[in-house]
Design a protein that fits this description.
The protein is an alpha+beta fold. Helix content is 39%, strand content 31%. It contains three helices and ten strands. The strands form two sheets. Strands 3-7-6-5-4-1-2-10 form an eight-stranded antiparallel sheet. It has a two-stranded antiparallel sheet with strand order 8-9. The chain is elongated and about 80 Å long.
């Protein structure tokens, strides 16, 4: 009698775990596509309203702020939607003073930080992408795509697709 109850309880626990795994997988996939749709909408809005800014902080802590032109904004979006990005559910610790922040609007901010706190860090090839789109924050890990140096081609003054304007500070509300 007791063995039967234990068997039934084990089956229920197993089924609950399976159902939980399926729900998590579906929710994760939904979030994956939701992120891309939100990023596309915020990027299009930033291009239309000319509201994209970048804050570039070098390893020494010096900050430079730029108002990005539409073409640089449009092309750099592909760096934030690399399909091999890995979602991190626990925010990593990072100690780098170097980072790039891209503001698509007052509600949309993307931060790229090189992975430097571990001995096997690949420098330019490994970065953390921290996104805040609307009221949803996400953290991703990207490797093998030289994201940091490629992003620098679009967010500095002498950018790849035209000049970005250097400004003294971000607009009010950013």
């Amino acid at each position: 009698m007791i063995k039967g109850k234990i068997l039934i309880a084990s089956v229920f626990v197993f089924l609950a775990a399976c159902i939980g795994a399926v729900i998590f997988a579906v929710a994760d996939r939904y979030d994956y596509y939701s992120y891309e749709n939100e990023l596309t909408a915020y990027t299009a809005d930033a291009i239309t309203n000319s509201s994209c800014y970048s804050v570039v902080r070098d390893a020494g802590g010096t900050e430079s702020i730029f108002h990005l032109n539409g073409q640089n904004t449009e092309v750099m979006r592909s760096l934030f939607t690399i399909t091999e990005r890995k979602r991190l559910y626990i925010s990593p610790r990072y100690e780098s003073a170097e980072k790039i922040e891209v503001y698509l609007s007052s509600e949309a901010k993307l931060t790229v930080i090189p992975k430097t706190n571990e001995s096997e860090a690949g420098g330019d090839d490994e970065v953390y992408l921290i996104t805040k789109l609307g009221n949803k924050s996400r953290v991703y890990y990207l490797s093998r795509y030289r994201v940091m140096s490629r992003l620098m081609e679009f967010v500095t003054q002498d950018a790849k697709y035209g000049t970005n304007e250097a400004v003294n500070r971000l607009p009010e509300g950013y």
